[in-house]
């Protein structure tokens, strides 16, 4: 028979994953072999799942070997389906049940301080990611997945969107660069992804193509959830087109900058002070604010240096960014802590909000604090600061009482 | 001789034998229910007339020493595990026994390690009849699969001392590997290439064994100071080239976990202790040398520093982290049971407030009190916990016995016992309807901290009240179990054989559970 289909990973040191080898046979029925680290407790469960999937794809004669290191059902199912589809062509999808909490939409302007990148083909890192409470979790199909693993990763990401508990984090996916990334959307949009990150975005047309595909899929699968876009600017051209990109469509909610690729494009090196990217960062912030969306900073890659991260976050906040990417769960708290408003800021915002409430109660058109008049944008900023302070645990919800 | 006989159901509902390797044993009756009678065991009275006046007890080889000690069939040979996976002596003892054609020995180590997997051949050929002590890794697997001739008996560190003191286990020959010793037999663990800190686990062996052999690669002239082991108990001293492999005895540095999930659990544990009011000026705690326990100690340090408090003592297997707290003045004493890294050894050597302890002072249940019960917070791991808070530290959910008890059972006497554990490990839920093996009754376990929530034993209403508005994710143990099963799926029931391969002793010498053979 033909070449076997192989998907997944099994090796010393790899946990919560499995490697599936699938081969069609002429006759002899189904031969399912399971070699699992959790054989005693889940051996039969795994065999049952495999036979269910094989029969779903109408496979009568085949050999399947599953070498498992404690993969959860959504991982097993993704690996088995990917291995099968490397051998046979089928439009059918074996879909595991979707969690109730994974069908919600998110808000256009919700907080996106921290978004944690998770390699799209590494189940071990996904399982507990949500408990670290980032604002968003990004299942990454792009740079974090080796080219030979791109195919199987899509099944894993799809299944994760359905059955992985994100513990309240926004469900984000970074697709591959356009046009390759357009195919990824079939695995995401029907499965309630909240937000798509579009890497190496250089113009509005990239986003239009993404939206066309999203709208087709929404219609086909009868999905009415919002799917937000966050383009990532990673080149000189992208920076120069930042404003065009930021206002390309109504569902663009944030714009991020990716500094590793940007500095490479400039032919320079990324430094801690970031002088080389000052213009690009400011451009992204300004374009995003002008378009009414959130400017989001690049990731900070030294995961062991929390002091440097904190300094980096403060600089980022100073430049006007509203959030930052992270590549390690321990970075989340540092990012939240440093994006959160400072005590003095909160105190000032409290006074402004109280004055605004007073004026409203008294039916006054003008808000004043002491002898100073307060403009509407200042009030809005103060209200934002208060919400921010509450959300980051710096202020009690009932602070007005 | 039958390996075991006369099964009864004990106070925790487990079927246990009352005849074990031909001797009578008492089933577990409940915590604090069993009272021993009689007097402690006494080894033979010796006379100076039989020992050299110049104090030189040196013998040329371990083999000669074992022959002089009267090694013969059916004897009990003890060894300690302060050298952990770097031990070179235990294997040699049984190589010699095998060479001499001796059979049916009982090995009575304070713990076994993978470096002793070579003893499997002697368990197979009958040189060794059984191990009474922890059976880790390969030896545990061998035993679990029903291959050991005698029945395994697992005891805690305190239980091991108690069994010797009570005369339940009579040690014929104790072999004490020592990093430094003098020809009289005084020995310590703080000096020498194989330095391991202390020799507390061998104390009872030296006091109660009929014959005591000290083996060292660092023989110094009398006096060997400090004399953690007194030469007055010692019959023979043997000098060898190498007593252990230093790099496997202690690590250069111990490491705090880098796993974000474990750090989260550690943070939650420290926060729980703080919000429940368990940490105060003058408090004490016990924490192991595992990555999670170490980070908890670090967080405790932060809390002490913030409040300008001091801990009165840490009960520890020590390493650089407790030593840092001691040297910073955040902790007044370290009461050390075993030392895990070079910093720990240095501190024990230099700092009088870093005290070496033994299972007698810390853990022996048949004594006039011990300090385990005085510890405020005890942090422990477990392989499984059930919905009644019973805990298992010896077997895995698939039935395999892979770990020893260590001081785990003994430390449960502390005021609040907390188990920081992940809700599941590689798909296997940690919270079960029933634990595979009961190593501790649930009434002694107070809090389970997982990354997805904290469960408090309903017996600890005080802790429930103290933390109800803390903002911590307090859940019931049933909720946690269901949460794990929703993620992992319901585990299948594991069918173990009826055949018993080992028993678990409780701290008072009674039998709390049996370990069953796995079906292979």
Tell me what the structure shows.
- The complex is a heterodimer of chains A (401) and B (520).
- Chain A is α/β, with parallel strands linked by helices.
- Helix content of chain A is 41%, strand content 17%.
- Chain A contains 14 helices and 14 strands.
- Chain A has helices at residues 39-56, 73-85, 123-127, 150-163, 180-184, 204-221, 236-240, 242-246, 259-266, 278-291, 306-319, 330-339, 343-361, 376-391, and strands at residues 5-8, 18-24, 30-36, 62-68, 114-119, 136-140, 170-174, 195-198, 228-233, 254-257, 294-297, 323-326, 367-369, 372-374.
- The radius of gyration of chain A is 24 Å and the shape is elongated.
- Chain B folds into two domains: 51-132 and 169-249, Glutaconate Coenzyme A-transferase; 260-495, 3-Layer(aba) Sandwich (Glutaconate Coenzyme A-transferase).
- Helices cover 25% and strands 22% of the residues of chain B.
- Chain B is built from 15 helices and 29 strands.
- Chain B starts with a strand and ends with a strand.
- The A-B interface holds A 15-16, 37-45, 69-73, 127-128, 131-132, 165, 328-330 and B 260-261, 263-264, 397-399, 425-428, 451-452, 487-492, 494.
Q: Give, in spatial order, the strands making up the sheet with the most strands of chain A.
A: 5-6-7-8-9-10-11-12
Order of helices and strands of chain A: EEEHEHEHEHEHEHEHHEHHEHEHHEEH
Supply the CATH superfamily name of the largest domain in chain A: Phosphoenolpyruvate-binding domains
Kindly provide the name of the CATH class of the largest domain in chain A.
Alpha Beta
By CATH, the superfamily of the largest domain in chain B comes out as Glutaconate Coenzyme A-transferase
Radius of gyration of chain B: 23 Å
Summing up helix and strand content along with how strands pair, one would put the structural category of chain B as alpha/beta
Low-confidence stretches of chain B: none
The N- and C-terminal alpha carbons of chain A lie at a distance of 75 Å
Q: Write down the overall mean pLDDT of chain A.
A: 93
- Low-pLDDT regions of chain A: none
- Report the sheet-strand fraction of chain A: 15-25%
The proportion of residues in beta strands of chain B is 15-25%
């Amino acid at each position: 028979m033909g070449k076997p289909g192989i998907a997944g990973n099994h090796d010393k040191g790899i946990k919560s994953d499995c490697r599936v080898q699938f081969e069609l046979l002429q006759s002899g029925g189904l031969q399912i072999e399971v070699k699992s680290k959790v054989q005693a407790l889940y051996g039969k469960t795994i065999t049952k799942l495999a036979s269910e999937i094989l029969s779903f794809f109408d496979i009568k004669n085949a050999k399947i070997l599953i070498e498992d290191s404690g993969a959860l059902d959504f991982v097993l199912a993704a690996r088995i389906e990917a291995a099968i589809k490397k051998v046979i062509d089928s439009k059918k999808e074996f879909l595991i049940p979707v969690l109730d909490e994974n069908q919600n939409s998110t808000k256009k302007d919700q907080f996106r301080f921290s978004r944690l990148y998770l390699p799209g083909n590494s189940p071990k890192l996904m399982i507990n990611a949500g408990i670290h409470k980032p604002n968003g979790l990004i299942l990454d199909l792009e740079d974090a997945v080796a080219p030979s693993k791109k195919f199987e990763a899509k099944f894993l990401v799809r299944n994760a969107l359905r059955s992985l508990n994100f513990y309240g984090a926004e469900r984000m996916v970074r697709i591959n660069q356009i046009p390759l990334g357009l195919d990824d959307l079939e695995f995401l949009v029907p499965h309630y992804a909240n937000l798509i990150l579009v890497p190496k975005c250089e113009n509005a047309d990239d986003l239009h193509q993404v939206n066309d595909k999203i709208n087709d899929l929404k219609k086909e699968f009868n999905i009415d959830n919002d799917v937000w876009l966050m383009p990532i600017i990673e080149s000189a051209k992208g920076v120069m087109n930042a404003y065009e990109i930021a206002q390309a469509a109504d569902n663009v909610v944030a714009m991020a900058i990716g500094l590793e690729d940007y500095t490479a494009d400039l032919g320079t090196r990324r430094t801690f002070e970031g002088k080389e990217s000052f213009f690009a960062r400011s451009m992204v912030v300004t374009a995003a604010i002008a378009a009414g969306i959130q400017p989001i900073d690049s990731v900070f890659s030294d995961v062991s240096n929390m002091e440097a991260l904190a300094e980096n976050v403060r600089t980022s906040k100073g430049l006007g960014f509203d959030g930052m990417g992270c590549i390690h769960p321990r970075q989340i708290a540092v990012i939240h802590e440093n994006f959160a408003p400072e005590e003095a800021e909160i105190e000032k915002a409290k006074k402004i909000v109280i004055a605004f409430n007073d004026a409203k109660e008294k039916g006054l058109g003008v808000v004043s604090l002491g002898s100073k008049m307060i403009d509407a944008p200042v009030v809005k900023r103060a209200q934002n600061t208060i919400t921010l302070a509450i959300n980051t645990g710096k202020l009690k919800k009932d602070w007005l009482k | 001789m039958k390996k075991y006989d006369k099964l009864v159901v004990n106070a925790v509902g487990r079927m246990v034998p009352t005849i074990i390797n031909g001797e009578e044993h008492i089933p577990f009756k409940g915590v604090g229910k069993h009272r021993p009678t009689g007097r402690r065991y006494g080894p033979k009275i010796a006379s100076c007339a039989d020992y050299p006046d110049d104090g030189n007890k040196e013998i040329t080889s371990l083999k000669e020493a074992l022959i002089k000690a009267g090694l013969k069939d059916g004897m009990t040979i003890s060894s300690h595990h302060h050298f952990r996976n770097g031990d070179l002596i235990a294997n040699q003892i049984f190589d010699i026994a095998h060479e001499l054609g001796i059979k049916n020995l009982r090995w009575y180590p304070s713990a076994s390690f993978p470096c002793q997997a070579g003893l499997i051949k002697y368990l197979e050929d009958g040189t060794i009849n059984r191990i009474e002590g922890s059976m880790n890794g390969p030896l545990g697997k061998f035993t679990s699969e029903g291959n050991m001739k005698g029945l395994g008996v697992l005891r805690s560190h305190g239980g091991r001392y108690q069994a010797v003191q009570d005369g339940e286990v009579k040690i014929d020959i104790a072999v004490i590997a020592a990093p430094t010793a003098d020809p009289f037999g005084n020995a310590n663990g703080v000096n020498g290439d194989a330095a391991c800190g202390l020799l507390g686990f061998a104390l009872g062996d030296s006091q109660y064994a009929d014959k005591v052999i000290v083996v060292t690669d660092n023989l110094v002239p009398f006096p060997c100071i400090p004399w953690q082991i007194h030469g007055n108990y010692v019959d023979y001293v043997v000098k060898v080239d190498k007593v252990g492999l230093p790099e496997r005895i202690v690590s250069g540095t111990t490491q705090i976990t880098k796993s974000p999930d474990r750090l989260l659990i550690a943070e939650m544990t420290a926060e729980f202790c703080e919000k429940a009011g368990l940490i105060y000026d003058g408090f004490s705690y016990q924490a192991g040398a595992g990555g999670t326990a170490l980070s908890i100690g670090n967080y405790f340090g932060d809390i002490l520093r913030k409040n300008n408090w001091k801990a009165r003592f840490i009960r520890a297997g020590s390493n650089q982290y407790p030593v840092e707290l001691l040297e910073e003045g955040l902790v007044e004493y370290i009461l050390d049971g075993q030392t895990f890294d070079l910093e720990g050894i240095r501190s024990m050597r230099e700092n009088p407030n870093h005290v070496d302890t033994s299972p007698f002072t810390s853990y022996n249940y048949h004594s006039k009190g011990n300090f385990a019960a005085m510890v405020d917070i005890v942090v422990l791991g477990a392989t499984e916990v059930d919905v009644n808070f019973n805990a298992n530290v010896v077997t895995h959910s698939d039935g395999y016995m892979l770990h020893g008890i260590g001081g785990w059972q003994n430390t449960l006497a502390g005021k609040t016992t907390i188990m920081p554990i992940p809700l599941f490990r590689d798909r296997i839920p940690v919270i079960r309807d029933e634990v595979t093996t009961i190593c501790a009754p649930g009434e002694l376990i107070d809090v389970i901290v997982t990354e997805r929530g904290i469960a408090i034993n309903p017996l600890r209403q005080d802790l429930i009240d103290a933390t109800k508005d803390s903002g911590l994710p307090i859940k019931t143990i049933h909720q946690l179990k269901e949460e794990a099963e929703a993620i992992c799926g319901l585990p299948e029931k594991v069918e173990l054989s009826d055949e018993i391969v080992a028993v678990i002793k409780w701290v008072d010498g009674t039998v709390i559970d049996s370990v069953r053979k796995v079906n292979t």
